[in-house]
Amino acid sequence: MKIIKPFILGLSILLLLACSKEAQVPRTYGVYMLLDTSGTYTKELKQAQRVISFSLLKLNPGDSFAVARVDTGSFSEKDIIAKVTFEDRPSRMNQQKRMFLEKIDKFVKSVKGSAYTDITGGILQGIEFLNERAPGKKTILIFSDLKEELRKGYKRDIDFQLQGYRVIALNVTKLRSDNIDPKEYMDRLEQWRIRVESGGGEWKVINDLERLEALF
Amino acid sequence: MPLLDSLGLNPYVTGLIIAIVGIIVLYISRRPAHRAIISLSRVVHNAMRLSAQSVMSVESRLANRNREVLLAAGREAEERMIEREFERIDATVRRDLSEYPALHRQLNEKITLIEDDYQASIEVPPEPPGWLKAVEAVAKIPSKGDPMVGNILEDIHQSLVKANTNAIEVYRKASHKRHDRLKSMMPHWRNVLTVLTNVDKSVTSILSRSQTIDRHMGEYESMVKGTDKAVRTLSSSSLQHFFTSLAVMIIAVGIAMVNFQLIARPMSEMVGGTTSLLLGFQLNQIAAMVMILVEMTLGIFLMESLRITKLFPIVGALNDKLRIRIAWFLFIMLLSLATIEAGLGFTRELLMEADQATGALLRGEDAGSFAMESSISWITTGSQMALGFILPFVLMFVAIPFETFIQSLRTVLGIVGVGSLRAVAWFLRFIGTIFKFLGKSLLHVYDLIIFLPLFIEQKIKSASSDDKLSE
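^ inputs. structure came back:
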């Protein structure tokens, strides 16, 4: 009896700790990456491959990753080039990473530039994807010059719901007009920052692709 | 104070008035104040003394309890040692003295053989031929120059010489035979010598064991008497055992951590690895920990069933047949787990190679360098597999220091408890003594403050006593 009492007490404490709220929060990552395929930006897709490879290196079992293209109408599952949730088994995870990389490689080789750039639709699609997967940390990567050009009739004046999201703009290149008037570039970044932060998200810009450690 | 302030006096004058009033008040209340100070200091002093006494009585009870526990543990250990010594003597007696009848028969046979050989080797002088006296009588016949008689005697002489030569030859042959007999006795002597040496060894071994038993019995008797020497010896050896076993257990924890690192990742191939179940530990990590703990438990029970440790008396009390069966079962289980661990070690290497290959692909590195590394990977693979197989058996031996640790922990905790109680008692006595002398000091300080009225009082008293004397 002397041993049983402390044993039961210890077991109860362990069970309480196991059932605590902190233990229930998943520690997984969910990353949704948007690739701008409009106009001359398709030339930058080789850089995007570096970011994808880096992300694949850092992601672990249970993490979700999707790469989608930004074209005329990006609010569509069809625009998702590759998506994966890594399995628990390390060997299977390695296979998934290789297959993912192959799909991206195939896409980069065959991509054709789109006339319009629907970044808002892409972000909405990303939110939908990540909400479904419900990872612990949600990140949307936008590999684009952030110049949104919508086709006539497309409505994108929608407020984002980005609580718990990090939105990171990558490789935001300067357009010719930006060089003439840098304010345009700054205004463009500022507008996106306001849109993301007003939706409850965290905004970040990484132009130097040597600093990719900040992604995770 | 406001009253004095309202009078508009100099602060020094105010202070002086307050001091005078205070001294007068203190002088008037001197006796009750002294009594109060003395009683307060006595109360605190006595309370502390009583507390110290009660703490010391607890300490005494604890020390006695520790002494009893220590002596009981010592007695148990000595009993075990004596029991082992008797078991060894029993083994020696069974091994050597059980063969004594055969040995005795062997010795008898050898001695009979030696005796036969001895009897056969006794020298018997050759019998003189029967016709020798007749020849002697003929030889005494006077020849008187007769050549015939001379010839006969010559023939007789030659016959005698021939007979003598034959007799010598026969004697030589008989001597040779006897020497052969004596020669053949040598191996028997040697055999007898070897047998007797073995007997001597056995007897010496039993004698030395009996000396060890005598020594243990002496120690056991001193423990039964509960002598201080026995308690001191047991106490110091307990401390030594405690620290030694603690050091070995720390090493064992290190071994368990290495083992954990070896199997945690490949375990995710079996059970998965992302679900955080307990305190942030993932499923594969928990599975690896459970596996190591199971191995350690199996090891502890294996040691127990082999009667190397005595943590669970019920295991030791089982009948030998069942106990040996359990030991075999535990060993097979441990062997299976060790084999699984070796497999996990192999899987770990495979996973590492796959990770490296995928990493190289993702970083866009040349796969050739990786291929070169792979050519020597069999060394690391083999090492990991060997480690995975050996470590469970190494961890099995944790049972021995664990038992020693548990046994010595009781003594160490007792010693620490007694020491702590003594420290508390000393502190209480110290506080009590401080209050006692503080009371006395306060009386003197009190009198020092009111020294002036006391001085006047003394003068008045001495003057009045002088007047009385003069009257």
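The first strand of chain B starts at residue 276 and ends at 278. DSSP finds 14 helices and two strands in chain B.
thumbs up if we can close this ticket
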